[in-house]
From TrEMBL:
It comes from Arundo donax. One of its GO terms (biological process) is RNA modification. It holds the Pfam family PPR. Keywords: Repeat, Transit peptide. Gene3D superfamilies: Tetratricopeptide repeat domain. This is Pentatricopeptide repeat-containing protein. InterPro entries: PPR_At4g14850-like_plant, PPR_rpt, TPR-like_helical_dom_sf. One of its GO terms (molecular function) is RNA binding.
Length: 154
């Protein structure tokens, strides 16, 4: 149910159901899919307070070191503009486990919020006129798509 709500734009309902599940059925332990779904819902709502609440829950759970859950947290914070929080979660991910998805979540967050130099530094790319223009174009396109109501970029 939580996943269905999250994937269909019913973020508030997803978060409400997750909180209710935790309160009513304390013996039920959410799995990785449930956690990623509620993280997605928090990202859709853009609430820093909810983001910190769900991260706190994850940190106290068995999924604290789960790569997919941490990638979802990075993406959630990046989308909400909390780049420092996104970077802090990124730093907790084991260096050997950092894959292209983890890196993309962080770098994309930097870029979409106008932190092009930080994104390039994080990616290990030397900033020159060509790389700056390419990155700027991508970030600008993403911002325009999001402001236009799209949920993903071309």
């Amino acid at each position: 149910m939580i996943s269905g709500y999250s994937k269909n734009g019913l973020a508030s309902e997803a978060v409400h159901l997750f909180k209710r599940m935790r309160k009513v059925a304390k013996s039920l332990t959410p799995d990785s899919v449930t956690l990623r779904s509620v993280i997605l819902a928090c990202a859709q709502l853009g609430s820093t307070e909810l983001a910190e609440w769900v991260e706190g829950y994850v940190q106290g759970s068995e999924y604290r070191d789960d790569l997919l859950v941490n990638t979802a947290l990075i993406d959630m914070y990046a989308k909400s503009g909390s780049i420092a929080h996104a970077h802090a979660v990124f730093e907790r991910v084991n260096m050997q486990e950092r894959d292209v998805v983890v890196w993309s979540a962080l770098i994309g967050g930097y870029g979409v919020h106008g932190h092009v130099k930080e994104a390039m530094k994080c990616a290990g790319v030397k900033l020159n006129d060509v790389t700056f223009l390419a990155f700027y174009q991508r970030a600008t396109t993403r911002v325009l798509w999001i402001k236009g109501g799209a949920t993903s970029t071309p």
